[in-house]
Structures are given as C-alpha cells and as structure tokens.
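Chapter review: from sequence to fold.
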Amino acid sequence: MEGGDALIWGDKLILRGLTFHGFHGAKPEERKLGQKFLVDVDAWMDLRAAGKSDHLSDTVSYTEIYRIAKEVLEESPHNLLESVAHKIAITTLTNHQQISAIRVKVGKPHVAVRGPVDYLGVEILRRRSDLPH
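The token string follows.
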C-alpha cells in the first residue's frame, strides 16, 4: 500500500450487516450463553481488472470474506472483540494476496450497560505490511 490516500480513495469490497451468534467475551455467561455479533468489512484492492473483464476470477468473492468472518465468529471463543476483529483481518489478508488493506468492525448489540445503545464494539484497520514476514 502506498500511502493513506490510496486507502481512502482506492477500490474496495464492502460487506455490511453480517450477523452471527458466537461465544466471545470476558465474562463466563457470555461464553456459556453466547450472543449476537454484527460485522462490517471493507477490503481494499484494485478492482479495475474485474470491472473490465466481468470475471469473478479477477476479484475476491464476497462469499470468501463472509466465510472467514463466519468461521472466526462461530468457532473458537475469544475474550476480546479486538482479537476477533484482528483474526478476521489477518486471515483475510493471508488468504487473499490481492487485498492490500482491510477494515473490520465487530459490534455487540446486547451489552449490559445502563442506557440505550445500538451496539458497542471495535473497528480495526490492518494493512498487508502488518503481516508477519
């Protein structure tokens, strides 16, 4: 990735409103009962070839990124949403070399706080340069 402008203005795949049931959290009841999680993903990559060719082979299928998010959310529990988001990001970057950067947002809509909220969560940004060499 060249610089910040390429990230902001570059092409990206967008996945919004993914919903999963998982058993993540630092509290025992979260790990026992599970809860709903919301996920949004932006994956930056050059989409010009796919735009010209109209071939799926020239891009990354949304379903591949969805599958990664689903596996992370529905399999092994994590204590922190930061860890869940990080695993989605790193797995996606590792599995899809065309993706130069990824932003993952993970939210919990049902949290024990005093007051109304849509959700509480985290948003992370990882670049290909963040991968271990």
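Two observations follow directly from the output. Residues 15 and 41 are 5 Å apart (CA to CA). The radius of gyration is 16 Å.
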